[in-house]
Each structure stands twice: as C-alpha cells, then as structure tokens.
Specification:
Length: 456
C-alpha cells in the first residue's frame, strides 16, 4: 500500500489535483493499491484519465466492498464501459447490486444485444424491477424513479411502522421520507422518519403524515421533475400511474444527475455540438468529429447567406471600399448581442422563469434592451470613427449598430421560444444559429443604410 501513500496525500484534498496525469499512468499493482486506499468519491474524480479496461481490471483486484462503492459513483457511461471490459462472473457481481433505476440508465449506453445479455445475467427479481423501469419512455419520470421503496399505511402505529422499516422485506432506496398509501397503493401523504422515531409508539401514522405532498406522473419529463424537487426543496417525490397508484419514488441525488446532464447537453448544443456523455479524454477522435460535424455542416450552409449578401452588394463595396473595413466589427457585435439574448432566454426557459406564452413580453423587453445597447455602442463608435474616417462613414456604422443590436436581441430571444413551441431543444437555436442569421441580416441592413446615407 506504499504506492498510494506516496502518490496521493492522506487528506486527499485539492493538493492531489496535480497528480491526475500520474494516476492515469499507474498500471497493475500500483493502480490497485491506490484505489484501495483512496476515498471512493476522490477515486471517481481522479480516474477520469484511466482507460476503462485498465480501471475495470484494477477494480476486480481490490476488496468487493470498495469496488462496489466506487462503481456506484461512476457515471452511467463509464459504468457501461467497465461492464463491457469485465469477464461475465465479475460483471454479474457489479450488475446485481445496482439500483434498478441506475441500472436502467446505464443500459442506455450499451449496444442493444449486450444490454439483453446483461438483463439475462440478473436474478429474476432484479430483472423484473429493471424491466419495470425500462418499460417507461426515455427521459420520463418512470425511467428516473426507483421502484424500491417503503410505504406505510395510515392506520399503522409508529411502533408498527418502525418494525415494517426494520423488517427489510423490501430493499428501499431511502427511508428518510416515506409515502403513506392505502391498501390499493393510492398516495395519501408522506411521513418523515424522524417524526416516527420521536413519536409515542401508539401514535398513528395518519396523525404524523403530511397530506399535501407534491407528486409527479410516470410520463412527466425528467427535467421538470428535477426542477420541481429543487424549487420545492424535496428529498423525494412520489411517482404515480395514471390511475393514481404509487409505483416509485425519485430521490434528490438522481434529480441532480438529471440537471447535470441537461445542463451539459444545453451547454454543448449552445456551441453547436452534440453532448458526448463521457469524460473528454476517453472519447475517440471519430466520436468527437461525429458530435460536431452535423451542426458545423448546417451552419456552413446557413453562412452562405452572408456570401450571397456580399455578392448582391458588390457594386456598393466597389464604390466605397472603406465600408468593407467595418464588416467584421458589425457582424461580431451583432453575433455577440444575439448570443447574449439567446443564452439568457434559453436559461430562463430551462428554469421556467418564462414560458412560451410570454413571447410578446420577451420580444418587447429584448427589443428595448437591444436598442439601448445599440444606441450606447453607436455613440461611442461614431465619436471614434468620425475622427479617423469621413463623418458620413461613421454615421453609417453608428446607425447600423443600432439596427443590428436591436435585431440581434430580438432574434436571439424569439428563436429559443419558437423552438420550445415546436418541441425542439431551445439550446439548438442558441448562439451558432442566431449568430449566423444575424450576420446575414446585419450585412443587409448595413448596405441598405449605406445606400440611403451615402447615396451609392
């Protein structure tokens, strides 16, 4: 175990960050020793540079308890990579102890045939629980929920409830807060474990439970569920079927994973790429290309609009060559103004600060914002340019800036809302698309203003 002590500080704090590349180079016994000593959450954080096959081999050599704790904290994509690298006996050991909802999320990252193999390797009980989750649509609350929970009945006493919890007849994801149901599993409320423990043994659960309990339906969107839990500060939220039966619970940690994934997805698409879903250095170059090439091609076609505008106003450029000097300035400011607006609205839509029905209010607010920004920038630009170039050229640029900033803010605000109405990810219509559209329309405005002011 000496290797871990020499490669990693005992407190495993931020001092160890400089050793990440060294950890990636560890092989065989060295990596095994390091994993055995490292705290699970730090092992997960620091081994993102380690190849899944290498990590899988090392995890089979450390204590089963430590390996299981590390495996549980890995991302679903990394879990799938490790399972594919493990021999069947070791694979079954990790797979069997996973929570059904975690197992279902992991199966989304494996080839279908291998996924069927994994399911067949499970015990009949775990296979049934996993299929229960997989039967619901992707990205629904049903896919996110845990079907393993403890429910209590209202006529139970506090003493009976504690006995039911301790019996362990059903493995539960959490018992800090438990749903209260009738005999038909219809949700009646929820009760906190602390209330049961502190209550007199004869106290009825109906007297301790909270009746006004937020719940979600199995078909609700996972992101909506996660937002509900963060806004209402919920540790769990019950999940019910259409007939009102309780079928599972969503826990706070799973909700946070959803938000983290959605934020990563929005961030990627705002930059014109598809999310890769894995640590960067573990992704093959071809997969990186595949995640970017589609949107790059679409944007390249859209950018041809800019070329067409320049071609249409070729004579104007030839007569006043100075106008060409300011094209990068104008399209740069317009693109940035549109990106600012789009990013703001995409975020507001994500956290439900605004809804598609607010589109007129959003458009009016962003139009005014863009106009004021354009006015301020244009005054500054005119003061500088009039000292260097002909005042009429400075005026053309200044007036164009007002129009471009106003238009960019409006387009950047409206496009994400329109995408939301069309059930398209608003992040897709964020910075890259808005910038491309504003570039072409901004140049059109520029040359039209030039024709009016300069008479060319």
């Amino acid at each position: 175990m000496a290797v871990a002590g020499s490669w990693w500080p005992k407190d495993a704090g931020t001092e160890g960050m400089s050793f990440m590349q060294d950890i990636a180079a560890l092989e065989g016994r060295a990596l095994e020793d390091w994993l055995e000593e490292a705290k699970p959450h730090l092992a997960v954080q620091r081994t993102k540079h380690v190849a899944p096959s290498t990590l899988a081999r090392a995890m089979t050599l450390i204590s089963p308890e430590k390996a299981a704790r590390i495996f549980d904290l890995l991302s679903p994509a990394t879990q799938s990579d490790i399972l594919q690298a493990l021999p069947p006996p070791e694979r079954a050991r990790f797979l069997e102890r996973m929570e059904p909802d975690d197992r279902a999320r992991m199966l989304e990252f494996v080839p279908p045939e291998f996924g069927r193999t994994l399911l067949e390797a499970l015990s009949s009980e775990e296979r049934a629980l996993t299929r229960t989750v997989l039967d619901y649509p992707a990205k629904s609350a049903g896919r996110l929920m845990s079907p393993e929970f403890v429910s209590l009945m209202p006529e139970m006493s506090a003493e009976d409830a504690l006995l039911a919890i301790r019996s362990g007849e059903k493995r539960a994801d959490t018992v800090f807060l438990m749903p209260v149901c009738d005999a038909e599993m219809r949700l009646l409320g929820a009760v906190d474990l602390a209330q049961i423990v502190l209550a007199a043994p004869s106290t009825r659960i109906s007297d301790l439970s909270t009746l006004d309990v937020p719940f979600v339906h199995v078909t609700d969107d996972q992101e909506d569920v996660a937002r509900l839990m963060t806004s209402a500060d919920l540790m769990i939220v019950p999940v019910i079927e259409e007939d009102g039966r309780l079928v599972g619970i969503v826990t706070f940690d799973d909700a946070m994973e959803v938000l983290d994934f959605e934020n990563s997805e929005d961030f990627a698409r705002a930059g014109g790429t598809e999310p890769i879903g894995r640590p960067y250095l573990s992704v093959p170059v071809f997969r990186l290309v595949r995640s970017r090439i589609v949107w790059l091609s679409v944007l390249a076609v859209a950018a041809s609009l800019t070329v067409n505008v320049l071609d249409a106003f070729e004579e104007t450029l030839e007569s006043v060559v100075t106008l060409a000097l300011f094209i990068p300035l104008l399209i740069g400011i317009g693109g940035n103004a549109g990106a600012q607006s789009a990013t703001t609205i995409v975020r507001a839509l994500a956290v439900e600060d605004v809804k598609p029905g607010d589109i007129l209010a959003i458009a009016w607010r962003e139009t005014r914002t863009g106009f004021v920004m354009g006015l301020l920038v244009s005054v500054f630009a005119y003061a500088i340019l009039a000292l260097i170039f002909d005042p009429s050229i400075a005026l053309v640029v200044a007036v164009t800036l007002v129009f471009i900033c106003t238009l960019a803010a409006l387009v950047g605000a409206v496009m994400p809302v329109a995408a939301k109405v069309l059930s398209i990810d608003p992040a897709v219509f964020s910075a890259p698309f808005v910038t491309t559209i504003v570039d072409a329309s901004g140049l059109l405005i520029y040359f039209l203003v030039a024709r009016v002011i300069l008479g060319v």
